[in-house]
Amino acid sequence: MRSRFRIPVAVCCTGAIWLALAASLRAAPNGPAAFDTRARVPWTMSQVVGRPDPPLPFRVRRVFERVPLKQPLFFTHEPGTGRLLVVEQQGRIVAFPNRADSEAVDLFLDTGRETYSLTFDPKYADNRYVYVFSNGPRDATKKQNRIARFEVSREPPQACLPASEKVIIEFESNGHNGGDLAFGPDGCLYISAGDGTSDSDTNVTGQDLSDLVSAILRIDLRRTDEGRNYAIPRDNPFVEQAGARGEIWAYGLRNPWRIAFDRESGRLWVGDVGQDVREIVHVIQRGGNYGWSVEEGGQPFHPGRARGPTPILPPVAVHPHSEARSMTGGRVYHGSRLADLRGAYVYGDYSTGRVWGLRYDGQRVTWQRELADTTLAIVAIGEDADGELHIVDHAGGIYRLEPNEATAVNQQFPRKLSETGLFADVAGHAPAAGLIPYSVNSALWSDGALKDRLIALPGEAQIEFVEAHGWNFPDGAVIVKTFSFETRPGDAASRRRVETRLLVREQGEWTGYSYQWNDEQTDAELVPAAGCDRELPFAAEGAADEPPGQKWHFPSRAECMMCHTRAANYVLGLSTPQMNRAHNYGGEEENQLAVLERLGAFKAALPKRPAELPALADPRDASADLAARARSYLHANCAHCHVMAGGGNARIDLDIATPFEKSYTLGERPLHETFGVERALLVAPGEPERSVLLSRLERTGRGRMPPLSTSVVDRDAASLLREWIAGQQR
């Protein structure tokens, strides 16, 4: 990236103004500092212990560990028996006893479709009816949301009778499908439906009452209307309105993912997945308009779009994207194990793993706080027969909240980089003894920033080598990455450090922290938990003569873990394919795997020599194989989310170990927005201009990929992928 100096004018998130660069440039070394690769020096100076924020009141504990689950989406119990049921995404519904030692499951139903939830008839004991929400067919261009009724056999294993299926209602939905259903206190069935497309309400249906999407539907299954397997209640709000679907109870919802009635108050709670800036919680009212896509949780979105017939109502709660990224609605707790939470609505977030609770008196929120910060991909919060909450992790587990025994906030946690014990000389960016420098084959794009990377292992602690994904690190390990820019391209002495990020492992979990460098380049201060933004005094590549400053985002602690996913084993660059390369240790180059093995950093000898182990290509190396370069770039920049259970809400799998023809990208239609690309495919063989994957890499703002901490297009990568796609066989 070509960067240029200009006088800074913007303020950073802490409010300080950058000083003139010419007066504060500090000389940087012309090359890497010498590092002794022959003997390991123990690192004993760590001060990165505990957490700087007050401890949260709860943590999660896994239950039913022996029960095999694949991509679970929903949890509930069978009335009258207490038997537990879990819905898996690909259509299996399994049942098992509510016992800690449960391990075998009975197949309750296999729909053969993507399946989201189920609910039992209020008179289940008599009629044995269960209702299932699915979407499909799987490979169809146009898909249908379907609510179907099944009868459950009274004979063991008391499963659904497939031949008893009766379709109650179907309607087209090809993206945000909603996916939940619940019987209300009035005996009617309520159904949540998203806007049916994706991204920005492509069909402009959020305020339109003429279809069944972007709404909460209410139907009566105790009787039928002519031509329907249900009846429309006469007291539904839009029954008499010309052109409106009478089934609609409320509207203006983007993707209402999980709904639940409070058994005591009768209120209907909804978690609505936001888009650009907010995640949303609603309490649904009859005829309520919740704004989408004129608004996004009270924030203007497309304010010029036509509005529905009723006023837009405010949300009960919103979370900015520094806290949450994909809202999962929860339930009001009425169990006995967690007395402090009785009467609280407990809900979570799929992307950040956070869990919150709030109390609402019908007019306002009277109490709200974060309850737990987990590593889970939370897709549902269900309850058993005793009203105890169970959190569903999309990666395959069921969890419960329990009180957190953590101590009070650590006042000694380093607020400055100089207090961490990671550097002998912070101003000179000289690492403390024992820290190991490293580099990667395919660097994550960070708006052209240069990066210095370090591994800090406490004492004699060692790494568990893993061949395919991220390595396993011991508690106390710290991964260090410093981001810098050269104000005079190619001149190391003009380097300006912007941010140093730490990834810290404690008590088996990783946490991310950011430190913002001061103007004098003498130290860096801990960034608030919510993160912040600033404008840098550097011009991006290709900018005009007097451009605005380049934006730089310091991620929140929640955002850190959105990329450092469990699917990647949290450490992105510290994997065998990334680390299998020569590194310059200050005049001497040697393979990093061999050096780490010699230093005793691994618990065991390498299973193979480096030449026999996988290695990514350098995407910037024009002499390397084109396909290897392109796949390596996608692996480094996309695969931490876009793999199985990685957090990306598309089906694609961009891990380099996955054959590209099996990545669900080549010749595949986008599941979501096409962003104006005509005849769009994710990757259109031989036709870059039809490839949404490339389009999203080349854009800024809405729809940009990667979506976090980047606002500058990687033009070299765009050219690389364009050439690679052009060469794909049709």
Structure in words:
It contains eight helices and 38 strands. By secondary structure, it is mainly β. It has three domains: about 1-50 and about 405-615, no CATH class; about 60-405, Neuraminidase, CATH 2.120.10; about 615-730, no CATH class. A hairpin with a 5-residue loop joins strand 24 (about 380-385) and strand 25. It is globular and about 85 Å long. Residues about 1-30 and about 540-545 have low confidence and may be disordered.
Topology:
Layout lengths: L20 H4 L33 E6 L8 E6 L6 E5 L3 E5 L9 E5 L3 E7 L3 H4 L1 E8 L7 E9 L7 E13 L7 E4 L5 E5 L21 E5 L28 E4 L4 E6 L6 E5 L5 E7 L10 E2 L2 E2 L16 E4 L6 E6 L12 E5 L4 E7 L4 E9 L4 E6 L5 E5 L3 E7 L19 E3 L4 E2 L4 E3 L11 E7 L21 E9 L8 E12 L2 E9 L6 E3 L5 E5 L13 E5 L2 H7 L12 H4 L2 E3 L4 E3 H7 L27 H13 L53 H7 L16 H12 L4
Q: How many structural domains? A: 3
Structural class of the helices, strands and pairings?
mainly beta
- Strand coverage percent: 25-35%
**Which stretches are poorly predicted, pLDDT < 50 over at least 5 residues?**
1-30, 540-547
Helix content: under 10%
The largest beta-sheet arranges its strands as 29-30-31-32-33-34
Using the CA coordinates, give the radius of gyration. 27 Å
Instruction: Please tally the β strands and state the result.
Output: 38
Straight-line distance between termini: 33 Å
Q: Sheet with the most strands? A: 6 strands, antiparallel
- Structure annotation, total helices: 8
On the 0 to 100 scale, the average pLDDT is 90
The CATH class label of the largest domain is Mainly Beta
Morphology call: globular
**CATH H-level superfamily title of the largest domain:** TolB, C-terminal domain
Corresponding CATH architecture of the largest domain: 6 Propeller
CATH names the topology of the largest domain as: Neuraminidase
